Amino acid sequence: MRVVRTGAALGAEIHDVDFSADLAAETVDGIHRALLDHQVVVLRAPELTVDRHVALAERFGEPEVHAFFPNLGGGHERVSVLDSEDGTRASMWHADETFLERPPLGTLLHAQVIPEFGGDTLWASCTAAYDALSAPMKTYLEGLTALHDLARTVELAYVRGHATAERYAASVAADRTTTHPVVCTHPETGARSLYVNHTYTRSILGLPPAEADAVLAFLYRHMTTERFTYRHRWSPGDLVIWDNRCTLHNALPDFSGHRRMHRVSVLGARPK
Asked: Is 71 left (phi over 0), alpha (psi -120 to 50) or beta?
């Protein structure tokens, strides 16, 4: 296999991996190493079956059953389906499911149907963004804790007229919340990384609301600066794997036609 870097801050393409058979241990190790080095890796895998998709995810850890996306069912409950025909289209910058105590360590997304134009996905390196902060800002953020809340996604939809008050109230009542450090240490690389996102982070604990809002607004703008990002133009059969512990992503809704993806995420440890 060959690994070719595709972005300045993150991103690489892995060539010469045969998905028509089970992958050898050394191949999976190579994919894992490339993921740690580049945070997002792209593999061309039109022959990848659903079973082999799940089997590859299992080599990284325990695949989850997603909290709210529909799944394939029929024994494939760990394979979520992101289908624009079901209304899965709009997106914002986020890391996957940070409202969980143990958010996914990574996600494996396999393209099934891709529109002719548009529908790219962007990733941002939260490690590169942290490294670029000034020393005083790093000191200020050290030790701060943020509240992450699943209901925030429904709240954002509600204020844009895309969700009912009843749905918003039900999401708040469900109380799917947890806390994580604003700056985390990657458990495998030891790199420091920002760990907040516009979709799930509600506040920074211990700060006055206006200050917390200002800090988060600054961090969201900073983290998604172009120099920290990689943009992928999908082709049918593409398999993209990303490290959810140190990246954000945003699927652009700028397309017409049909977009369908199979998604498997692997649960990780509690961020710290």
From this structure: beta
* Rounded Cα–Cα distance for residues 105 and 243 (Å): 6
Candidates 110, 148, 245, 263; catalytic one: 263
Give yes or no: 86 in active site. no
pLDDT in tens, 175-213: 889 999 999 999 999 999 999 999 999 999 999 999 999
Residue 50, token pair as written in the block? 């659903």
First-to-last alpha carbon distance for the chain, in angstroms, is 33
Residue 179's CB is within 10 A of a number of other CB atoms, namely 13
Q: What is the mean pLDDT of the chain?
A: 94
Q: Hey, CA dihedral for 236, 247, 36, 79, is it positive or negative?
A: negative
Q: How many CA atoms lie within 13 A of 208 on its CB side?
A: 3
For this structure, is 148 an active site residue?
no
Note whether 225 and 10 are within 8 A (CB).
no
Which is catalytic among the residues 53, 176, 249, 260? 249
Q: Is 222 a catalytic residue?
A: no
**% of the chain surpassing 70 pLDDT:** 98
**Cα 240 versus chain centre, distance:** 11
- pLDDT score for 89: 60
Q: Does 249 qualify as catalytic in the annotation?
A: yes
Q: State both tokens at 78.
A: 């760990």
Q: Output the six-digit token pair for 166.
A: 């009843």
Catalytic residue among 53, 66, 94, 152: 94
DSSP three-state, residue 216: helix
pLDDT in tens, 75-132: 899 999 999 988 666 689 999 999 999 999 999 999 999 999 999 999 999 999 999 9
Q: pTM for the whole thing? A: 0.94
Residue from 83, 96, 149, 238 carrying the catalytic annotation: 96
